[in-house]
Specification:
The complex is a heterodimer of chains A (about 375) and B (about 600). Chain A is α/β, with parallel strands linked by helices. Chain A has helices at about 30-45, 65-75, 100-105, 125, 135-145, 165-175, 195, 205-220, 240-245, 270-275, 290-300, 310-315, 320-325, 325-330, 350-360, and strands at about 5-10, 10, 25, 50-60, 80-90, 110-115, 150-155, 180-185, 225, 230, 250-255, 260, 265-270, 280-285, 305-310, 335, 340-345. Classes of the chains: A alpha/beta (about 375), B alpha+beta (about 600).
């Protein structure tokens, strides 16, 4: 049953040096044409299911003009949402104002995700974005006045970052007292300015130390580590992201969005010009049972609680331990098996790909 | 054809001195092939031979040539130039009365020129020295002439100048072949004695024997006997190559041709053996000693389910290559494979390449080993071609290893660096001959095991490519050798064991352990790598545990991309061999080779 929808807004007023998402410099006329195509795509594809999560990401959705926002919300108004829906809207802290927050609230948004990345202005140049710690804190506090449920993005493994830099950052994130923290280690991707400038990734050993530090400090402050990179206060896990980790189907609308509907995973064009011309999907892939089950492992083992054996059985009518030969990995403590679940021990979370690969290579289905 | 009008000869030369082109030109001149038929270097028929510019399998061709009023039959037997194949040279030499010695006009005498000439002289052949490639702009005929005269003692007027490329001097060469090389001495009336100098395999006719009739004659339908094996066969087909196959009813003394007798495999034929008539057997001809494999290595299929394919490939290669030996072997690290014996490193390379290219099987080769001779405390002698089979130290009284004597020809300016290299390779200096005022032939006794690794590459780089190298095996000498094992995560990896001189063990151990540390990717746990002799650890290096392999991004929708990243890693994993809990890439098994002291 389809319960989630992602909408991509590929416009920014500033392009950050590390970003490899689908994005474009803000242009009002382009935005309006884009929203027209977005509406068309949604109307043509959305089957009136009652959704429980809606996520507007970017890009920078908060960069939209109020006029554009009104159009966007008219579009999101097309979706039927259930009673305890989660509607997340991504914001750049500089865009946040009372007016914006009120507008979001009025239109059903109930979760804000702010791309803070770091409070440390030493990284302003590297990241290519404005970093003003005081303003950041003010905007977070302002957001909290309107919204109970707030996520902050935390980025680490920044070029030149020391462990004590990170420690100071984490303290700020904790002090912000928000409900959710998403972390990610900076990846220097091709086609980003950082890559072009030849900036080097910091070494794995330090990254691992940083990851451990984040996990430890957030956990000690009441945050639950529920997915490799995600932390929340109890009960505030991101429902939308859990759709992904639980290998459930979801709509993806907009240029650069990906979706999973009717056993087909698809990617939309990354070119907003093509998108405006009416081209949407550029890649489709049929997910058969074996692929589905392997995806289940790849995604499910990202969750700290891992895969629930009973859920797996109910879903596929197969025993997890029959589909995959796990005994040796369990014996080697690469996996932990309880009565109900199979999961990756904390010690190996940062090398989870290794474990996931081993599980997939030990798949008994063909 | 009158016996006195037959000439059996071969061409000997250092690699690249133009032997094959010269053979082509002779065939063209005698009308054996027209220019149109003449693909470059007709005698090198294997693709690999043409690509590498080397001749591996020898071939023979018969030509008729009119000189004055007389018709002559010229039998040319091609020979390989490379040192690994010197046994093939000696085969063809035994079937000839004369040899054309080719020296490149710009290069001068090289190591294989000398080695091959000595082989020819041992066989009492008449030698016609020629200087080839005189058309080259950098040809120095005067200097090369002097080298030939000074080194080999030829007279100036004996030396013929040719250019196989332009054809100049070929008539003069043919005259010399007819006038100088003696006709075969054998008699048709004597009992049949035919020398087998090669055999090839064809799926329809079975093994085809190449032979030189020394005495007597053989007809289709005759019952023949192999003197050393006693096997008897009925002759089904006889013939010569001109160079196309030409069937004949009879071969008589002095002839060089082929014989088919429904023989299933070339392994049923011993090259060097004598064929005689079963009804009226003759004496064994003095054969030449069969060449034994000198270098061994393990060959394993990368995908273990291709073991049988690999066996079939080796079987097929062996049909045509009696010098290739192999037997099944099991390695705890690599699974099921074969211990293969080769004549030398080039032979090994060629076989490995043919398996991959012609049979499409990916293989892992373990580092090559020579054959060691161990005398046990109970006086038993063991021949060991696989380091992992070396018995423990307490049981061994002494170990001997094969030694070679080198011919290393270099411009005299490089003598110092060559000597340094030989010294590093445990060589013992013997002496040095001056070929010309500025070129020397350096003789060292060196353990063969030091040469099978990277000696030739090093020699080339030490001398900017000017050195030429050849060797002869001179026998076994006592050596202070030890077996060094490699433990990965505490487990001995048999495929990585080597035998090495004790004095070099520490430095080699250090390098191997370091190489492996770099080649083996980080695993989930720390992996110690140790080099041990017996129970004594002589070098150690640790591969730190893998710290990061995660998609630590917070966004999630793009699942296909995640999957693709994993797929890529999965492919990498599949190419690894798992030893215990450790995944080891294929290259690691050869890393023991790349030991740079």
């Amino acid at each position: 049953m389809l319960k989630s929808c992602y909408i991509h807004i590929p416009f920014c007023k500033n392009i950050c040096n590390y970003c490899d998402f689908c994005k474009n410099y803000y242009d009002e006329k382009l935005v309006l044409s884009y929203l027209k195509s977005l509406q068309k795509e949604i109307k043509e594809n959305y089957n009136k299911e009652v959704l429980s999560t809606l996520y507007v990401g970017g890009g920078t959705p908060s960069a939209l003009s109020y006029n554009a926002l009104d159009i966007l919300f008219k579009i999101t108004g097309l979706f039927n949402l259930n009673d305890n829906y989660e509607f997340t809207f991504e914001c750049n802290y500089e865009d946040i104002t009372d007016n914006l927050l009120q507008k979001l609230k009025d239109n059903g948004v109930n979760r804000i995700s702010i791309g803070i990345q770091t409070f440390n202005d030493k990284f302003e140049k590297t990241l290519g974005r404005k970093i003003n710690k005081k303003e950041m804190i003010n905007k977070i506090n302002l957001t909290k006045k309107y919204f109970k449920n707030v996520n902050l993005d935390l980025m680490y493994a920044l070029p030149g970052q020391t462990l004590s830099d990170l420690k100071n950052d984490i303290k700020c994130f904790i002090n912000a007292k928000v409900t959710h923290v998403s972390t990610y280690s900076l990846m220097i991707e091709e086609h980003t300015k950082l890559h072009v400038d030849g900036v080097l990734q910091i070494n794995d050993d330090i990254q691992y130390k940083m990851y451990k530090m984040i996990t430890k400090m957030l956990s000690c402050n009441g945050y639950k580590h529920y997915e490799i990179s995600n932390f929340s206060l109890p009960g505030h896990e991101s429902k939308h992201n859990l759709t992904y980790w639980n290998n459930l189907e979801y709509y993806g609308f907009g240029a650069g969005a990906s979706g999973f509907i009717g056993k087909i995973r698809y990617d939309n064009t990354k070119s907003i010009f093509n998108y405006i011309k009416g081209i949407t999907r550029v890649y489709e892939e049929n997910v058969d049972l074996v692929k589905m089950i392997k995806d289940e492992v790849m995604l499910g083992l990202r969750k700290i609680e891992g895969i629930n054996k009973n859920d797996f059985k109910n879903r596929y009518h197969l025993e997890l331990n029959d589909v995959f030969s796990l005994d040796e990995m369990i014996k080697n403590k690469m996996l932990i098996e309880t009565k109900t679940n199979v999961f990756i021990p904390e010690k190996y979370l940062f090398v989870s790909n290794e474990i996931i690969l081993n599980v997939i290579l030990n798949c008994n289905l063909n | 054809m009158k016996k006195e009008n037959i000439r059996n000869f071969c061409i000997i030369a250092h690699i690249d001195h133009g032997k094959s082109t010269l053979a082509d030109r002779i065939m063209e001149k005698t009308g054996a092939v027209t220019k149109r038929e003449l693909k470059d270097q007709l005698l090198d028929s294997m693709d690999l031979e043409r690509e590498r510019g080397i001749t591996i399998k020898l071939n023979a061709v018969s030509m008729t040539y009119k000189n004055g009023n007389e018709q002559y039959l010229l039998n040319l037997i091609d020979t390989p130039g490379h040192v690994d194949f010197s046994y093939e040279v000696s085969r063809s030499l035994a079937a000839c009365e004369g040899a054309v010695l080719v020296v490149d006009a710009s290069q001068g005498i090289e190591a294989q020129t000398i080695a091959n000439l000595y082989l020819a002289l041992e066989n009492n052949l008449t030698i016609i020295p020629i200087i080839n490639k005189i058309d080259l702009p950098n040809a120095d005929v005067v200097k090369v002439k002097k080298e030939i005269i000074d080194t080999f003692g030829f007279k100036e007027d004996e030396i013929i100048l040719t250019s196989a490329k332009t054809g100049s001097g070929i008539d003069e060469l043919l005259d010399a072949i007819i006038n100088k090389i003696p006709s075969p001495e054998g008699k048709d009336e004597e009992r049949l004695q035919a020398l087998i100098f090669d055999s090839v395999y064809e799926s329809y006719r079975g093994a085809i024997i190449w032979l030189r009739i020394v005495n007597g004659k053989v007809k289709v339908g005759d019952k023949v006997k192999m003197l050393s094996t006693g096997a008897e066969y009925e002759v089904v087909e006889l013939g010569i190559h001109d160079p196309k196959e030409k069937k004949l009813n009879e071969l008589t003394s002095g002839d060089v041709g082929y014989l088919c007798a429904s023989i299933k495999s070339v392994s049923d034929i011993k090259v060097g053996d004598t064929i005689t008539l079963a009804a009226d057997p003759s004496e064994l001809l003095p054969g030449y000693k069969p060449m034994k494999p000198m270098v061994f290595c393990g060959l394993y299929p990368v995908e273990s389910n291709r073991y049988t394919d690999l066996r079939d490939a080796l079987d097929k290669l062996k049909l045509n290559d009696a010098s290739l030996s192999f037997e099944p072997e099991t390695s705890t690290a690599l699974g099921f494979g074969f211990r293969c014996g080769f004549l030398g490193m080039l032979h090994m390379d060629v076989i490995e390449e043919r398996i991959e290219r012609e049979f499409g099987i990916n293989i892992v080769a373990t580092s090559p080993s020579v054959v060691y001779e161990a005398t046990m405390t109970n006086s038993e002698t063991l021949l060991i071609d696989n380091p992992s089979q070396m018995p423990s130290k307490e049981k061994i009284k002494e170990i001997k290893e094969p030694y070679i004597k080198t011919n290393i020809i270099v411009p005299s300016g490089y003598v110092g660096s060559v000597m340094q290299l030989c010294q590093d390779k445990r060589g013992t200096y013997i002496n040095m001959d001056y070929i010309a005022s500025d070129r020397v032939n350096i003789h060292y006794d060196i353990p063969l095991s030091e040469v099978v690794y990277d000696f030739f590459d090093k020699l080339k780089s030490f001398t900017k490519g000017y050195a030429s190298f050849d060797y002869e095996v001179i026998g076994y000498k006592l050596s202070n050798l030890v077996k060094m094992d490699i433990l990965i995560n505490g487990e001995e990896v048999d495929a990585l064991s080597i035998i090495t001189h004790k004095d070099f063990a520490y430095s080699k151990g250090k390098v191997i352990v370091e190489n492996l540390r770099k080649l083996i990717p980080r695993q989930l746990f720390e992996v110690p790598i140790q080099a041990v002799i017996g129970t004594k650890v002589i070098a150690r290096s640790d591969i730190k545990a893998m710290k990061k392999n995660v998609l630590a991004k917070c966004y999630g929708g793009d699942i296909t991309r995640k999957r693709k990243l994993l797929e890529k890693q999965k492919e990498g994993k599949k190419r690894m061999k798992k030893v215990g809990n450790v995944e080891i890439p294929q290259e690691a098994f050869l890393s023991v080779l790349k030991v740079d002291e």
